[in-house]
Amino acid sequence: MTTPQNTHRWRFFRAGGFDQVRLDRAEDLLHLDQLDQKLWVALSCPIQGLEFDRRTLELIDTDRDGHIRAPELIAALHWTGALLKDKALLGAGAATLPLDAIDDSSEEGRQVLAAARRILQSLGKGEAASITPADTSDIAAIFAAARFNGDGIVTPANCQDEALAALVQDIMERIGSDTDRSGEPGVSQAQAERFLAEAKAWCEWQAAARQDGAVLPLGEATAAARDAVAAVRAKVEDYFTRCRLAAFDPRAGGLMNGAEDDLKALATRNLEAGDAAIAALPLARIEAGRPLPLEGGLNPAWSAAVATLASAAVAPLLGQRQALTEADWQALLVRLQAHEDWLAARVETPVAELGLERLQAILAGDLPARLLALIAEDAAVAPEFEAISSADRLVHYVRDLALLANNFVSFRDFYTRRGKAMFQAGTLYLDGRSCELVIPVNDAAKHAALAGLSRICLVYCDCQRGSEKLSIAAAFTAGDSDQLLVGRNGVFYDRQGRDWNATISKIVDHPISIRQAFWSPYRKVARMIGEQFQKFAAAKAAAVEQQSATLVADGAKKVEAAPAAPAPAKPAPTPFDVGKFAGIFAALGLAVGAIGTAIASVVTGFLGLSWWQMPIAVAGLMLMVSGPSMLLAWFKLRSRTLGPLLDANGWAVNARARINIPFGTALTQLAKLPEGAERALTDPYADKRRVWPWALTFLVLLAVFAWVVLRGHV
User: HSE-up of 536 (CA within 13 Å, CB side)?
Assistant: First the structure.
């Protein structure tokens, strides 16, 4: 894309670690096409999941792909600027558009101004000097109040009489309908023309049968004759073919009547006339040159169908017959062939459901011409009603485009904290904190795969309010993550002030603060020691329980066996092994000595320092323990960025929008007492202080110190 020559003097502010353009004035917005898009914070954003007027976003999204891109925003700004006399209204984001601010020097401007006045008149505000988005919010109601609204769709309510309304209703039921701008179903020109064309074709098809007597040789009874022939045609053809075969070879006569075994199988069954095995046999007894009997000697399974053939087709077309020769059968088919050809040319259309009489009445009258004229009359006012849509577009653009640009081209609202950015869904209260960087998500697992690259500690929550549900991702940028656990509950307040129950479903863990990183090693060591003590205690408890159970079981066995066996001799006591215990005591002494020597070395070195060096040594020791963790956390906190968090929601963030430590601290507020609040420090349920742990510690330290002195280290 080629950037136009820059003739505008731009102003920038620095926030988030990069320069962002200031869009405070209308001229900034109207020259936005001259700003290099590499300086835009975002180049695309979805229209879903934003705290912004949905109607405005849909109007800007001209290609209806669900995203707003830079060219669409620029086009909306230029279109709005061309229709305003006072362009400062665009920069101010005016919620009310004065009518005299609409530039009527162009044809489009005059149409928009006239449309705005028409909207106000339809609302009973004919004397109003300005218009607002609330006035144009219900465009459907404005269109419904008018008989014609320019969309070329006619509803039954638009018709002048019942006959025309009935025709529109028939078309909607048989062909389909489109939705009128009023929201009601109606008929378009294409649907009306299709209905009339199919009605005409079906009527002409019906007329062809009446113009050619061969098509309906029996009039309305022809269809019944044709159905009677079709019902037995295959079986009659089979009969005459078998008879010709019997004439060709006399040996075939008996075989063509069916195998004897088949007849024997039928003899053992309970038979009915419609039995499939009977129906498979020939229509009548096969003989060379024998005509088909129409009364007696017929296969029981086919006798009713043959009787219908005789009464509905043979008698009316050939005369009364008791038997039907093959020549008669061929003559019958010839008499009905024209009807068969006519049926093959049938016009298949749902319009036929109305019947010939109704369709002929429609086509013979003036209803088709009146309907098409009514549709054309509605379409003729399209420019006027397109202007109503343009008036709605204009008032929304004047109010919202500046706000959108400051949340798209720059992230002014987010970084200056004058208000919430349009991607911030609300505030989450959880674990004594309030998080302001909260965005809606559809799939937490899919979102976290990309959003985790932001280096921000993210907490995904499932929120519910009655039957409504939503998912959010909240950024925790202050405090620590010790108590952030899956399953914990909080409360989420959306931008409308509604409260939702929020439950943590997923956590993407990253450092939150330097303080957390400082204490992290000590907490890990304390947690490890606690876990080891718990495992040791659990193992000992299990061993004691197992030993007790074994002793009880052994005792029970001994009691049961006591009457049958003499008491065992008392075992001789094991002699005391002095050497073994001497070795144990020697090992313990060495261990204690080694530990004492190590402690003595540390204490000696520490006591050998000057008084001012002692706190420095303690601080250095703590820095050695916490320093690596703090340094790693510092690097990660400096690299936190907003981009992946929004990209995972479909944005195209074009800048490295950082969230540094001071700004992150502002996005997550910790609990603190109000200014001037009174605080009582007496807690009746506080843990009682015990003196003996401190006394024991003091005695141990004193003993170590005395031992060091006695050994001559000091």
Answer: 6
Cβ distance 80 to 401 under 8 Å? yes
Q: Give CA 218 to chain center in angstroms.
A: 63
Q: How many Å apart are CA 466 and CA 471, to the nearest integer?
A: 14
Q: Which structure tokens are listed for 457?
A: 């500690």
**pLDDT at residue 153 tops 50:** yes
- Report the relative pairing of strands 292-293 and 668-670 from DSSP bridges: unpaired
Residues of the chain above pLDDT 70, percent: 79
CA separation for the pair 414, 710 (Å, rounded) = 68
CB of 359 closer than 8 Å to CB of 349: no
pLDDT bucket at 573, cuts 50 / 70 / 90:
low
Given this model, what pLDDT does residue 142 score? 65
Tracing tokens 């409360």 back to the chain, one arrives at 491
Residue 105 — very low, low, confident or very high, per pLDDT cuts 50/70/90?
A: very high
One-letter amino acid of 162: E
Amino acid code (one letter) for 275 = D
Which tokens in the block code for residue 273?
A: 């006339």
Long-range (24+ apart) CB contacts under 8 A made by 495-501 are 495/51, 495/420, 495/424, 495/425, 495/426, 498/465, 499/465, 500/463, 500/464, 500/465, 500/468, 500/470, 501/463, 501/464, 501/465
Using 50, 70 and 90 to split pLDDT, how confident is the model at 576?
Answer: very low
Distance CA 309, CA 300 (A): 15
pLDDT on residue 103? 94
Q: What is the mean pLDDT of the chain?
A: 83
Instruction: Output b/e per residue, 580-597; b: 16+ Cβ within 10 A.
Output: eeeeeeeeeeeeeeeeee
Longest CA–CA separation in the chain, Å: 146
Edge-first strand listing for the sheet containing 652-653: 67-69, 42-46, 652-653
What is the H or E stretch that residue 580 is in?
helix 578-607
Cβ proximity of 601 and 704 under 8 Å: no
